[in-house]
Amino acid sequence: MEWTPEETKKRVILSAVLPYDHLDSIREMIRNAGGYVGVALLPGFTKHARILLPVDGTTHLVGLVGYPTGGVTPKTKTTEIREMIYQGCTAFRVVVNTGMLLSGEWEEVECDLRSTMLSAGNRPVGVIIEAAYLNDPQLQRICALATEIGAESVCAASGWLPILPDGAILQRLHEFLEGKALLETAGISSYDQFAAAQQAGVERFMLRYQHAEAILAQIS
Asked: Mind listing the pLDDT tens digit for each residue in 132-183?
């Protein structure tokens, strides 16, 4: 079922997270962020975004933690969260340490995620994985862990790696989550990709502002 433009905005986090994104592009994104569920940008721009974004409770300022690789230490992630809370973030996306996950170091992965959840307090937290690089047992286990610790969502990709999860992977993730957390994804750049991901069970998207606007134009 196709969402209306208004429904779509409520399911989209706008992003400006590439190295060449600058204050002017962030200002443009935030000027047009009304109706969207959130905006996400690199941590160095958080304080600038907080000044620009109306504090009305409808559009989250989303802090990206350990982004984009997840390979920093748990202490670094908790420090990032505390600093971004101070700067005004109201929601977070935490990147799983994929290298540790692929190494079978599940205690490390769990410690990492639990410590970040605690640091975020009662603010909504989503977990970002790289689903295209994981097998089904790994996907099922990380989904179970994410829902156990109270994550609001599992995002199937950071959008930085060359391979994105296909529809079959997204469908399996949706099944593994059992309705206990929202399925998100990132890296979508066209309406066809968006529609296919929606059909596979994706309920929320992290999209570059330009891509979101182009997709909305085709929906309307």
From this structure: 999 999 999 999 999 999 999 999 999 999 999 999 999 999 999 999 999 9
Q: Can you give the length of the chain in residues? A: 220
Full domain range(s) for residue 68 = 5-219
**CA 150, CA 59: separation in Å to the nearest integer?**
21
- Counted domains in the chain: 1
Residue 203 CA to residue 180 CA, distance in Å, equals: 12
Rounded to 5, what percent of the chain is helix, strand, coil?
50, 15, 35
**Strand (E) or helix (H) holding 154:** strand 153-155
Chain mean position to CA 141:
19
Specify the CATH number for the domain of residue 184. 3.20.20.70
DSSP state of 62: E
